[in-house]
Design goal:
The chain crosses the membrane at residues 12-31, 43-68, 89-107, 113-132, 285-306. One of its GO terms (cellular component) is membrane. It holds the Pfam family Bac_transf. GO terms for molecular function: undecaprenyl-phosphate glucose phosphotransferase activity. The protein is an alpha/beta fold. It folds into 3 domains: 2-141, no CATH class; 147-249, Rossmann fold, CATH 3.40.50.720; 272-460, no CATH class. It has 16 helices and 12 strands. A 6-stranded mixed sheet has the order 3-4-2-1-5-6. A two-stranded antiparallel ribbon has the order 7-8. Strand 3 and strand 4 (192-196) form a beta hairpin. Helix 1 (2-33) packs antiparallel against helix 5 (111-141). The chain is flat, with a radius of gyration of 28 Å.
Length: 467
Amino acid sequence: MIKENQKLLNRLQVVLDGLVIIASYVLAWYIRFKTGVFEQDPWALSLGFYMQLLIGIVPGYLLLYYVFHLYAPKRVLGRRLEAWRVMQANVLGVMALILLLYLFRQIDISRTMLFVFACVDIFGEVLERNIVRYILRRIRKNGHNLKHIILVGYSRAAEQYIDRILVNPEWGYYVRGILDDSMPHGAEYKGIKVLGTIDNLTIILPQNRLDEIVITLGLSEYNKLERIVGMCEKSGVHTKFIPDYNNIIPTKPYTEDIQGLPVVNIRHVPLNNMLNRIVKRTMDIFGSLFAIILFSPVMLGVVLIIKFTDPGPLIFKQERIGLKNKPFYMYKFRSMIMQKESDEEKGWTRKDDPRVTPIGHFIRRTSIDELPQLFNILKGDMSLVGPRPERPQFVEKFKEEIPRYMIKHQVRPGLTGWAQINGFRGDTSIRKRIECDLYYIENWTLGLDLKIIVLTFFKGFINKNAY
């Protein structure tokens, strides 16, 4: 039933996409030639002529949407990822259109109109798909269009999978139960019961009432994996495997194929690639120079205020641990009264800390005190984006308490980072912060850096946890 529903949904999605493409194309023509927004050309072609091009544009764009996996099930496909794929498909589509017009010497067709079409279609497709997503999730929340699954193996992976399903009922997954050899019959986790042993698959599978089998064996039971997969494949039921080592292997493991032998790398760090390091360092140099020029009036104003309101140095420097565990001195505008170095090492700043100066409260809350780190970036100690550096005594403490903590030192520390724009600054969970740092390290792209920099202006400057 689920497969038939998915096919029907895909057909409906194709029809809706086609209608949106046509509507966007007509609207783009109207905006270009009838609104007066753009200068009119005497040789402008009629709507009828432009409509003829839809004979190739509609199937071409639908094919692009298929290539960019826009007809994959929406159960766990994120809105942002779907919107990004729509944008990629449209950009590629309009580039292909312009190239074809150039090759066939079609100079009378407005390129401006095609660019407007791309923008309108991106907006229309994203809107239409979010409406479909909303309707589907409402239906699934009400108990319809559910995908029935059985978990094979009771483990941490099984518990984590159940947790996510229960928190997201709109995904439409219904867990019928768990099969496990070590747990007693009737034991349960959050209402999901153990129905029997793994051998009960031989009874359950022929009944053909399941949409998916999810293998969630514990690490000690992986010797059973081949037999379980064999039984599932004979039944034809779609099978998934959720490994019970997600605290060791990253979400997107880096795999190699050595003459048919799969090799999974424990950690994939894109910035180990020399070209990636050069690209990132180039962006750091030019970005920090631009930021220094842009914020120079702000920095000059802060220097003058600190100078005339509190005796002592303008810049505070503190030892931090950076790339490859090497120490460096990180710069900040001084926001606290002068104190002994031993007092500085006692701990983090507290709420209403008496050591913070009046101007210090403001510049800490707005992150202005961090601006001198732009010079750390120029020196090569830091990067515009990366995990925030920590003091040596806390590094020694956290590396014993938090698994994988030291991985953050495989890249340069940053002025801002993925953890900071997700709200993990100041007095927040260190473990959550490290999870964000590891995600950044393992998924680095230049686009992710640019995204973090942009979001920093909206989420990163004002910090309610900065005392």
